[in-house]
């Protein structure tokens, strides 16, 4: 039986690859390989991330600032090691944790994502500004498929 693998260089959108949306620092047996359904979910999510990147660069960035993903898709094994919920949107490729350089950038990212939702009339499931006990910030952003209910949950969480 041969091992399952993915093409990490496969572009999901112009600026996001399958490799960056499945990267993990956790050693696992399963290799953190998403299903075809999870890959389609990641593509939808990356569409939002592309819009975030474009607006950020128009308003605040240097014209080509990347959006850095800390965590995207997580297999069951990776999610367990990361301490994720058993119902996490990461498990099905519907969520990404976006690195922020501080609370100001986190707030600006959040406002941009809220504006995109309002202007496009499309909903998201979760937009959480999170802060670790060490003081680092990230945005947890999730978008479920159109066939599922998006809750438009917005919160500020501290670890």
Describe this structure in words.
The protein has 159 residues and is of the alpha+beta class. 34% of the residues lie in helices and 17% in strands. The chain contains four helices and five strands. The chain has helices spanning 18-22, 36-59, 76-82, 103-120, and strands at residues 69-71, 95-100, 126-131, 137-142, 153-158. A five-stranded mixed β-sheet has the order 1-2-4-3-5. A hairpin with a 5-residue loop joins β3 and β4. α2 packs across α4. It is globular. The relative contact order is 0.15. The mean pLDDT is 94.
Categorize the overall geometry.
globular
Q: Which H/E pattern describes the elements?
A: HHEHEHEEE
Spans where pLDDT lies below 50 across 5 or more residues: none
Major β-sheet profile: 5 strands, mixed
Helix count, DSSP H or I runs of 4 or more residues: 4
What is the averaged pLDDT score? 94
Helix content: 25-40%
Whole-Å distance between the termini?
A: 42 Å
Indicate the radius of gyration in whole angstroms: 15 Å
Q: What share of the residues does DSSP label as strand, in percent?
A: 15-25%
Counted beta strands: 5
Q: What strand line-up does the widest sheet have? A: 1-2-4-3-5
Determine the structural class based on helices, strands and strand pairing.
alpha+beta
């Amino acid at each position: 039986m041969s091992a399952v693998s993915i093409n990490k260089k496969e572009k999901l959108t112009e600026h996001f690859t399958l490799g960056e949306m499945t990267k993990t620092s956790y050693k696992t047996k399963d290799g953190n390989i998403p299903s075809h359904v999870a890959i389609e979910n990641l593509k939808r999510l990356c569409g939002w991330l592309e819009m975030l990147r474009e607006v950020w660069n128009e308003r605040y960035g240097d014209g080509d600032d990347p959006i850095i993903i800390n965590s995207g898709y997580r297999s069951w094994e990776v999610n367990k090691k990361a301490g994720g919920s058993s119902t996490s949107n990461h498990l099905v490729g519907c969520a990404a944790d976006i690195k922020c350089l501080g609370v100001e950038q986190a707030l600006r990212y959040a406002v941009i994502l809220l504006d995109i939702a309002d202007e496009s009339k499309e909903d998201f499931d979760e937009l959480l500004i999170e802060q670790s006990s060490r003081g680092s910030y990230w945005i947890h952003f999730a978008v479920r498929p159109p066939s599922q209910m998006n809750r438009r949950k917005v919160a500020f969480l501290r670890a």
